[in-house]
Specification:
Oligomer: single chain
Strand order of the largest sheet: 5-12-11-10-9-8-1-6-7
Helix content: 25-40%
Distance between the termini: 47 Å
CATH class of the largest domain: Alpha Beta
Number of strands: 12
CATH architecture of the largest domain: 3-Layer(aba) Sandwich
Order of helices and strands: HHHHHHEEEEEEHHEHEHEEEE
């Protein structure tokens, strides 16, 4: 892909991001539309590897260097004045959005499994979505207290026959796997996490800070490793008398299609329950349901579609005739 084709692909990527940010982050919606139409920023992006051109990564890296979310003039100026430093941050870092509210969309599926649970999250970032039993939950008035009274309450708008649990599940053991784990005790890693939050999304920044404080009280065990190569050895460490659950959110889009297939085969050999919270069509051999624009689909064992979910955990639409148990 060269010249015009490349910049057209970059532009389409940013227009798609603008549609996702619509109604959620007016600032980033406007910024993404401006980047899609900007030859200078487009040329800068074209100089980066394809995997490093994502809007989330560019905007977070600019924010990391500028100390505030950028507008298009800030971004143009940064690219022309300090493009090499911006490029180096983008090459070094990853879009490891660690949105704790995704736990609210996973919880009904987790709580329907036989306790106690042993959790493995692949693509765990800093491990904030491993702490599913510590947070409290509020599903439009259906409230569940978590096991850490100081942890934030995650609010999620439920639709459909959501199987609300009576209590949060008992988690006996938990571990994460990530190519580049972030450390909740590192101020710089936490600053990068905060740069990945979109401006204008209500209390998302405060929720992240409260989740980080929770994780600092109970630091999750996130191991450096690859989801294909290192998952079986990690699964072997889980207590045998617990229900092993392997889960992930917004990970498979970054995995090549052939490797998604290998990953699915790997998980199926573990005897684990497999929960996938991903964009439609990313789980191999699972028919893409009519999703009416839902960003994510929650599936079990690569076979059963449980729910449509918001990518940042703000709503959950459970499908009829499916159960989490």
């Amino acid at each position: 892909m060269h010249g015009h084709d490349l910049s057209a692909a970059v532009a389409e990527n940013y227009l798609a991001f603008a549609r996702e940010a619509h109604g959620r982050s007016p600032m980033y919606e406007a910024l993404a539309m401006a980047v899609a139409d900007d030859a200078g920023v487009g040329g800068f992006l074209s100089s980066l590897p394809a995997a490093k051109r994502q809007p989330n990564l560019l905007f977070a890296a600019a924010r990391y260097l500028l100390g505030a979310p950028p507008e298009i003039d800030d971004l143009r100026s940064l690219v022309s004045r300090d493009g090499e430093r911006l490029a180096s941050v983008m090459r070094e870092k990853r879009t490891q959005t660690n949105e704790p509210a995704r736990c609210a969309t996973l919880l009904p599926a987790l709580a329907g499994l036989p306790p106690p649970l042993a959790l493995i999250e692949v693509g765990a970032s800093a491990g904030l979505t491993l702490l599913v039993d510590l947070y409290s939950y509020d599903y439009a008035g259906h409230r569940l207290p978590g096991r850490d009274p100081l942890a934030p309450t995650l609010r999620c708008e439920p639709h459909g026959p959501v199987p609300f649990p009576a209590e949060v599940p008992e988690v006996r053991w938990r571990a994460g796997l990530d190519l580049n784990p972030l450390d909740v005790t590192s101020d710089d890693d936490v600053r990068w996490l905060s740069c990945l939050v979109w401006p204008g999304e209500g209390d998302r920044g405060q929720r992240l800070a409260a989740a980080v404080a929770t994780a600092r009280r109970r630091p999750p065990d996130v191991r450096r490793g690859d989801l294909l190569r290192d998952l079986p050895a990690l699964a072997a460490q889980a207590p045998p008398d617990a229900t092993l659950v392997v889960y992930h959110s917004a990970v498979l889009a970054y995995v090549a299609p052939a490797d998604r297939r290998r990953f699915a085969a790997t998980v199926r050999q573990l005897g684990a329950v497999w929960l996938s919270n991903e964009g439609p069509g990313l789980v191999p051999d699972l028919p893409v349901p009519a999703h009416a624009g839902a960003p994510f689909v929650l599936t079990r064992d690569g076979r059963e579609t449980l729910a449509f979910t918001d990518s940042h955990g703000t709503w959950l639409r459970w499908l009829p005739d499916t159960g989490a148990g």
